[in-house]
């Protein structure tokens, strides 16, 4: 078994680990029969990212990326279904807007590829344009934890950062960065380098600040979640978990070098 085959296996395995990471949150939502303080935004955004990049991976006939993206779409579809099932009526409008946003962006990508480019006589730019769309959604997702990082720096408390997800993001992005480098794929390498930097930065914050609220009244886990009114600590933890998962999903973006 050659080293590239092993690397492909590592990429797919770490990607799968990120796909299933939100299952614990789904169990909490199902048990509470409520979406707590969580938003549909991360799941909708990750679904968009996986869909665009599956489209691109299919154009490239890139087996590992196709498998990874198909698994991601299946996982996000399940998470969205679970979320919508238990979302209160008050969130229906917001949920609908996010799903419409995803549909509109996918329609815009299709319009550019199948209408604008042919009219402009630039069919050869199909793959590069799709690569750019995939990279934009990937880098945007990779940058999503920055809001949580700002809160950690402000409060000097890293209890809202999920250490296991931050570590998994760093590991997954490292694998995909090496994969892109060995394939002379600058876009995949660059996108995942962003994920490595953000994941490492969050692990550094966890090491420096730790969980200063653990065991204190009002700290994470101190309040019992009822209905749709999760406490602030729980809401921050859930949001950070989604952000970490988003970073992992956004890291392995499309590449334009093979076009």
Cα end-to-end separation: 29 Å
Count of folded domains? 1
Number of helices: 10
Number of strands: 0
Supply the helix-strand structural class. Answer: mainly alpha
Strand content: under 5%
Q: What low-confidence regions span 5 or more consecutive residues with pLDDT below 50?
A: 214-236, 253-259
Overall mean pLDDT: 78
- Largest β sheet strand count, sense and barrel closure: none
Helix percentage = over 70%
Shape: globular
Give the SSE string. Answer: HHHHHHHHHH
Write down the Rg: 19 Å
Strands, helices and their partners?
Elements: H1 3-20, H2 23-32, H3 41-60, H4 63-86, H5 92-119, H6 126-142, H7 146-155, H8 163-182, H9 186-209, H10 232-251
Helix pairs in contact: 1-4, 1-8, 2-4, 3-4, 3-5, 3-6, 3-10, 5-6, 6-9, 6-10, 7-9, 8-9, 8-10, 9-10
Could you explain the architecture of this structure?
With 259 residues, the chain is mostly helical. The chain has one domain. It is 74% helix and 0% strand. The protein contains ten helices and no strands. The longest helix is centred in the middle third of the chain and has 28 residues, at 92-119. The two termini are 29 Å apart. 41% of the residues are buried.
Q: What are the salient characteristics of this protein?
A:
mainly alpha, single chain, 259 residues, 10 helices
Summarize the structure.
With 259 residues, the chain is mostly helical. The protein is 74% helix and 0% strand.
């Amino acid at each position: 078994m050659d080293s590239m085959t092993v690397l492909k296996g590592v990429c797919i395995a770490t990607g799968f680990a990120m796909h299933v990471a939100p299952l614990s949150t789904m169990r909490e939502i199902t048990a509470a029969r409520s979406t707590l303080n969580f938003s549909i935004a991360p799941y909708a955004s990750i679904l968009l990212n996986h869909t665009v990049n599956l489209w691109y991976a299919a154009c490239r006939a890139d087996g590992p990326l196709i498998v990874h993206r198909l698994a991601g779409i299946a996982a996000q579809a399940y998470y969205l279904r679970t979320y919508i099932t238990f979302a209160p009526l008050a969130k229906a409008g917001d949920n609908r807007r996010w799903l419409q946003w995803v549909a509109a962006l996918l329609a815009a990508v299709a319009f550019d590829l199948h209408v604008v480019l042919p009219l402009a006589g630039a069919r050869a730019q199909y793959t590069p344009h799709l690569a750019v769309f995939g990279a934009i959604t990937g880098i945007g997702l990779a940058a999503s934890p920055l809001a949580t990082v700002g809160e950690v720096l402000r409060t000097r408390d890293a209890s809202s950062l999920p250490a296991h997800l931050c570590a998994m993001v760093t590991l997954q992005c490292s694998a995909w960065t090496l994969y892109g480098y060995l394939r002379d794929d600058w876009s995949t390498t660059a996108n995942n380098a962003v994920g490595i930097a953000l994941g490492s930065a969050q692990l550094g914050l966890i090491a420096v600040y730790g969980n200063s609220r653990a065991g204190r009244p009002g700290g994470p886990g101190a309040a019992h979640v009822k209905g749709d009114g999760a406490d602030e600590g729980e809401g921050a933890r859930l949001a950070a978990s989604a952000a970490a998962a988003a970073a992992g999903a956004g890291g392995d973006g499309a590449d334009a070098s093979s076009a």
